[in-house]
Sequence to fold (220 residues):
Amino acid sequence: MTFYEIDGVVPAADPSAYVHPLASVIGDVIIGPGCYVGPGASLRGDFGRIIIGAGSNVQDSCVLHAFPGADTELAENSHVGHGAILHGCQVGRHVLVGMNAVIMDGAVIGEDSLVGACSFVRAGTTVPPRSLVVGNPAKILRELDTETVQWKRNGVHVYQELARRSRSGLRAVEPLPAPEPDRPRVSTDSSVSRPLHEMRAEWGPGTPPSTRERMSDAVN
Fold:
């Protein structure tokens, strides 16, 4: 069982969202259209409200919670990496929260920002839009360049597609005793998404504006 009510408050999830059966969704949680919630994620709305905006993803083993009467809110197209903890914070549109990052109470992350993996954002921190935030405690390093913004937004689209794939084709099975000959791969490959450092190595400092514009058209 994935969903639990408490004090008569029942979670709400749009039918187009996908919530893995091994996630826990408790109480005052609202999950918008096209969202993906991965296995092991805990969205615990037993004190405060948790709002997951349309098209957002909350990946494996993430924890979302809040103090009594407070909200944890992800605006639309948010991207929360494996193992992140969000507690009573506000995350803007198109923000990427890196793996194992922690964002504390009252923090506000401006839209299109990137919180680096393993960063710790202290309570009450306000991050301007399109910022790169890294470290423990996290500090604003610089404004994001166009290539990073485009790469980040593409990742959101990949997880929106994963929500659709999971709704239509994910099911429990018994494992095979051994891999079959000519074993197929899943339907996504490196043409869909690649690590940013690999793409930067190919772009190089002389990437022409026309290439960057085509990339922008592909993800906006």
